[in-house]
Write a structure and sequence with these properties.
By secondary structure, the chain is mostly helical. It has one domain (23-241). It is built from ten helices and no strands. The protein starts with a helix and ends with a helix.
Length: 242
């Protein structure tokens, strides 16, 4: 074996090591993004019910829409630490949303619903535990008979919800009423938290897409082309996440 062969082998080994590290890092980020989405669903379960009783919380609204944007961003655009920080904050916001919902039930003489799943989730104490929780959610979802198809439909819904949510600040600045968008936003996330039925998710995907078009059309004309371009979803991105 000559020197050239040795150099080629070393280069190949370094390339494989770098690729392996990149895949490892990407898998960790996807696990954390999955957990963040789970936490967002928990917030939405309470806020959907609170808003039905005519109560809102702008702090929760801003956090939830921003968190969804981060959760649906490319894996190279966020770090483990950024996601972990946002996951812990999501747990606090979920507790805030729960207290708001339980408080508003009083004046309406209504017994608060006993919610489940994402509404009861608690974050692990450190980064490794959070990653493990995210992996567990991914595994549990794939074990469901409709797991892969449901995950694809959910991703499409979340991408369109992210698109709608990203325009809320612009719409507020333009004095547009965003309550209808937020009502739908929380209702859709609540449904994603509660159902893996493909018929229900397919119907929701169409409704979410319609809302996405609506929010784009409400934007100033100069921003509408950018909004439409942002809605494009690549098949590879969907498959990488599910």
């Amino acid at each position: 074996m000559n020197r050239l062969d040795d150099d080629q082998i070393q280069t190949t080994e370094q390339s494989l090591e770098a690729r392996s590290r990149a895949l490892y890092d990407e898998e960790r980020v996807i696990a954390l993004q999955t957990l963040l989405i789970h936490a967002i669903k928990g917030i939405a379960m309470y806020m959907n019910r609170a808003r039905q009783l005519a109560v809102a919380d702008r702090l929760i609204d801003r956090f939830t829409t921003n968190a969804l944007y981060v959760a649906m961003s490319k894996t190279t655009a966020v770090t483990d630490d950024q996601l972990a920080t946002m996951i812990f904050e999501a747990a606090h916001m979920r507790d805030r949303a729960q207290k708001l919902y339980e408080w508003v039930c009083g004046p309406h003489v209504k017994i608060p619903e006993q919610l489940w799943g994402p509404a009861l989730w608690q974050p692990g104490p450190n980064l490794d535990c959070l990653i493990s929780q995210g992996r567990g959610i991914c595994t549990q979802r794939m074990m469901h008979p409709n797991g892969f198809a449901a995950a694809q439909l959910e991703h499409l819904c979340l991408h369109e919800l992210k698109h709608s949510a990203s325009h809320l600040s612009t719409l507020r600045a333009a004095k547009e009423d965003v309550d209808e968008v937020l009502d739908f936003f929380y209702s859709a996330l609540n449904l994603l938290a509660c159902s893996t039925d493909l018929v229900i998710l397919s119907k929701l995907a169409r409704q979410v897409e319609e809302m996405s078009f609506t929010t784009t059309n409400q934007l100033p004309a100069s921003l509408q082309n950018d909004g439409a371009a942002a809605r494009m979803v690549s098949g590879s991105d969907i498959n990488n996440r599910v």
